[in-house]
Amino acid sequence: MNVTLRQLRVFMEVARLASFSKAGQKIGLTQSAVSRSIRELEDELGLKLLDRTTREVVLTEAGLNLVASVSRLLAELDGALREIREIGEQRRGRVVVAAAPTVSARVMPLAVAQCNAQHRYIALSLRDEVQYDVLRKVKSGEVDFGVVIAPLLDPIAADGLVLEPVMTDSFSVVCRVDHPLAFSDAIGWASLQGERLVLLDSASGSRPLIEKVFRDHGIEPVVVQEMAHPASVFGLVDAGVGISVLPNLALPLPAGLSLVARPLVPTAERTVALVRRRDRSLSPAADAVWQIVRDVPLRLGQGV
After folding, report:
1. Is residue 160 part of a domain?
2. Which positions fall inside the HTH lysR-type domain (predicted)?
3. In which domain, by residue range, is 177 found?
């Protein structure tokens, strides 16, 4: 028996689209070429696979059975070819990515899941680090690349690095439900003057941006606690220690706490960016992960 892969793919397109002409358009063949391929397949099998009239194309019982079998066959074949291609392109190996905490919580889980689904030969390891350590590990080569908050206001921190913006984010006030600010739909930055603040510490990528907005609005912040992670901030605010300014990627608020979040106006934006060393190219595997992380914000509806 001399059934070709091309004949099977043509047959599957005709079966899927129920049309010789549409199948031909899809796979780049003339209608006569499609008809000839189907006829040759039927002749080779000695079976009628399709009943064709001037108005419709209908699968015979033999055609229905063949569709079920060939669907599994082609799926396995395509998977095997994809694996061979990835091996040939060296899209395999271990990739290590460091990301700031709020990015790790919201953006990176989708990237890890997508990488696992698309690249079975890539082992992606995620490092949850404050921004200072993300930049340090990118520069030292401990990680393949990082995800940070931009702009990098310190020129020394940005030296030797390439950044690619992927999404923007803004800030909200987080306070207890019984705090006076909780009763406003939006909160002006000036309203924070004199408030006791629980903020992310200076190692956070957001802290320099928040301090810049305070200076721009003439606010002298009263910072009573500085924490490394949003989870600690939530606990302190819920306990009544103070209120906080957090990026929206740190939301939603944890269940079980008496907290609300209100947007700050005018909007102050921060940028989430991929970062790598300028003098070192990414491996094929790391580049594949870079592309995945770059596209995740589009799935969140928050791309730049």
Report:
1. no
2. 3-60
3. 167-270
